[in-house]
Hints:
Blueprint: H1 4-7, E1 10-16, H2 21-31, E2 39-44, H3 50-62, E3 66-70, H4 74-86, E4 91-93, H5 96-106, H6 116-136, E5 151-155, H7 161-170, E6 175-179, E7 198-202, H8 205-218, H9 230-246, E8 251-254, H10 260-271
Parallel strand pairs: 1-2, 1-3, 3-4, 5-6, 5-7, 7-8
Helix pairs in contact: 3-4, 6-7, 7-10, 8-9
Amino acid sequence: MKTEKDQNIKHIYIFSSSVGETGERVVKTTLAQFDDSNTELHRKSHLRTLEEIRKAVKDVEAQPGLIVYTLVDPVHANFLYVEAKRYGLKALDLITPIIGEIQEFLNLPAKRKPGLIYKVNEEYIRGLEAINFTVKHDDAQRVQDLYMADIVLVGVSRTSKTPLSIYLATKGYMVSNIPLVEGIDPPEILFAIDQSRIVGLTIDVPQLINRRKSRLRNYGQATRSSYTAYEEVKSELDYAKLLYREHAKWLVVDMTNKAIEEAAAEIMKKFQ
């Protein structure tokens, strides 16, 4: 049996061409300005055709209330308004007036496509996941997950594997990177995954020596060692280049005098 409070419930219907979350959030924010409003919210989502809108309005007639709608198609928005009026229902358009004003202000046409904000959110979440994956798989960490990576970077020390990995991750790619060390075989899983996902990085000898010396100076260490000796560095790079030649499917990117953004663009061109 319904109580007096149940009988006095005010029903608010959120009509949307997407999931209806935006409309519901606006309504809830507004309702917070009222004490004990005794309202009940109902979502009617993914209304993409006139028939779906007609049926949704007909459903409201059985339990009348206020219709709040965020239909981005102006034809659908106008149709809903007329249908609601036909049944004696009040309908409030949350989005069409705003789109119109901003369209005029920007002097740009609106896309009028439902769900775009959620597409943006999905891309944002994908970016966060990519960065999280890339950080956890830097410098041969968790090599057992190599098959999950969109891109695998390989190269000798100081060929920009880590900064390039992070930059690519900000673009939504899950990246692993594997250091190549002469005399030590790379992990076997590297040769078992899809070879077209592997990118080999190289650089000229003098520039690599300068990078390594700079790194040692930053750590307060002596810059003269096998790590920076010309013959040793050349031997390492020759070893890497031989490996690249043996695996024709690997993309090879020369990092000599190349900015991270430029190298990333070269890589993304292949993977896009």
